[in-house]
């Protein structure tokens, strides 16, 4: 049982690698002064949530500050961090069979200036590499802390022992003086009707924060 569970988690992580802010540089860079202005704005507004916020460790001084709500039962998975995947949490209380709901936060950047639409199109292209046609993705443009963002609901196809299951991806476009960033998260489960998962995943997506370094 433990071996199967480890395999399921590994496959889930592989899926998240493919759908969390990858291939950002595939678009054609253009000026994005509006995005830079949004990142500098002193009127950034984040959604309040009824859960403590954890701050994702930064690797570079130019990176934005990223925070995410941590509802009860969600614990950090140590040893998973990479240059791309910055923070992983699972909830053992919501385990379904051999799979625990998982959320992964990612951050990628390029030196080129890009528009939010280009950033989001690159992310949807990454999801498509899983075998998910864009026509099967449900997208919604929103704002996160005053920044342009997009949510994508889609179905992850079967991967080895891991059965098809739904996922939600959130991508936030951010521009510093030096780089264009995509801050994002992907949350997935094999029990999407679980009311606690629904509540927690909605909280983590809506309460996600991306802030300029000057507002840690």
Provide an overview of this structure:
This protein is an alpha+beta fold and 216 residues long. The chain has a single domain (2-211), classed as 3-Layer(aba) Sandwich (Protein Transport Mog1p, Chain A), CATH 3.40.1000. Helices cover 24% and strands 31% of the residues. The protein contains four helices and ten strands; from the N terminus they run ααβββββαββββαβ. It has helices at 2-19, 33-40, 116-128, 195-206, and strands spanning 53-55, 65-69, 74-76, 85-91, 102-110, 138-144, 147-156, 165-175, 180-188, 209-211. A hairpin with a 4-residue loop joins β8 and β9. The longest helix is centred in the first third of the chain and has 18 residues, at 2-19. It starts with a helix and ends in a 5-residue tail after the last strand. 42% of the residues are buried. Residues 1-14 and 25-32 have low confidence and may be disordered.
CATH structural architecture: 3-Layer(aba) Sandwich
* Helix percentage: 10-25%
The secondary structure category is alpha+beta
Q: Residue-averaged pLDDT, rounded?
A: 81
Order of helical and strand elements: HHEEEEEHEEEEHE
- Strand fraction equals 25-35%
| Number of helical stretches of at least 4 residues | 4
Give the distance, in angstroms, between the N- and C-terminal Cα atoms: 42 Å
Give the tally of β-strands. 10
Query: Widest sheet: strand order?
Result: 3-4-5-9-8-7-6
Within CATH, the superfamily carries the name Mog1/PsbP, alpha/beta/alpha sandwich
SSE order and pairing:
Blueprint: H1 2-19, H2 33-40, E1 53-55, E2 65-69, E3 74-76, E4 85-91, E5 102-110, H3 116-128, E6 138-144, E7 147-156, E8 165-175, E9 180-188, H4 195-206, E10 209-211
Antiparallel strand pairs: 1-2, 2-10, 3-4, 4-5, 5-9, 6-7, 7-8, 8-9
